[in-house]
């Protein structure tokens, strides 16, 4: 499928798929969306609730690596130990990730180098970015995830239900539910009623939250205890 570079409203780059009119990140701001949905409503919320410094994260749709990069710096700030797994069926090319400008926009001296380290890390092999942050990028489809009670947090960043409805079903969310530890959290930019109902049907408690710029709402789902 054809992929094109696209500059979003906050100046950060993403990738546009013209054949299906879909972007890897919000056209209203890739950086702003990721920071709000996954860091603020996901990672920061989880740390506030659990006080646990050892956090296992599963990202559904590794894409450009933006969520991983932001998590890395948030983890350093909060003194967390992160075990990060990013699942992606169709990894982007080196030319594409090198065109992303996240490092310069973050205004952190080492951000560009960290972003490169994330992308040059071998696929399907656990790599240590720093002592407190390990990364494993897995090239596979989401339905092939089979972990049980492993993760504290899931970043659900798949393409939207409009273009890939099969990724937003009870079948997929049951896989997500099983992969989470009790009290584990899943966050996503999506807010459709059908998505919320699919999450609830497999046992999640679901909250509607304020969305990122350009989007009224988003969803956060929590796994019940036991």
Descriptive report:
The protein has 226 residues and is α/β, with parallel strands linked by helices. The chain has 7 helices and 11 strands. The protein has helices spanning 30-50, 66-78, 94-99, 102-106, 111-120, 170-179, 193-201, and strands at 4-7, 13-17, 22-23, 54-60, 81-87, 127-130, 133-138, 151-156, 180-188, 205-210, 217-222. The longest helix is centred in the first third of the chain and has 21 residues, at 30-50. The termini are far apart. The model has no long low-confidence stretch (mean pLDDT 95).
List the helices and strands and how they pair.
Blueprint: E1 4-7, E2 13-17, E3 22-23, H1 30-50, E4 54-60, H2 66-78, E5 81-87, H3 94-99, H4 102-106, H5 111-120, E6 127-130, E7 133-138, E8 151-156, H6 170-179, E9 180-188, H7 193-201, E10 205-210, E11 217-222
Parallel strand pairs: 4-5, 4-8, 5-7, 8-9
Antiparallel strand pairs: 1-2, 2-3, 6-7, 9-11, 10-11
Helix pairs in contact: 1-2, 2-5
């Amino acid at each position: 499928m054809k992929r094109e570079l696209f500059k979003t409203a906050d100046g950060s780059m993403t990738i546009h798929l013209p054949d299906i009119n879909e972007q890897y990140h919000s056209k209203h701001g890739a950086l702003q969306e990721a920071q709000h949905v996954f860091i603020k409503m996901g990672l920061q919320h989880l740390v506030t609730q659990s006080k646990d410094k050892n956090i296992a994260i599963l990202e559904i749709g590794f894409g450009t690596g933006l969520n991983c990069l932001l998590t890395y710096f948030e983890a350093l700030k909060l003194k967390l130990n992160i075990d990060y797994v990013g699942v992606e069926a169709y990894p982007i090319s080196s030319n594409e990730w090198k065109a992303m400008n996240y490092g310069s926009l973050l205004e952190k001296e080492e951000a560009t180098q960290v972003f490169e380290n994330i992308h040059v890390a071998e696929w399907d092999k656990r790599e240590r970015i720093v002592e407190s942050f390990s990364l494993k990028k897995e090239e596979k489809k989401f339905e092939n995830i089979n972990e049980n009670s492993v993760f504290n947090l899931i970043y659900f960043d798949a393409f939207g239900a409009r273009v890939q409805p099969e990724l937003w079903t009870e079948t997929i969310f049951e896989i997500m539910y099983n992969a989470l530890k009790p009290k584990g959290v899943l966050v996503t930019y999506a807010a459709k009623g059908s998505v919320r109902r699919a999450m609830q049907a497999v046992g999640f408690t679901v909250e509607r939250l304020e969305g990122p710029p350009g989007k009224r709402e988003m969803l956060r789902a929590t796994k019940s205890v036991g």
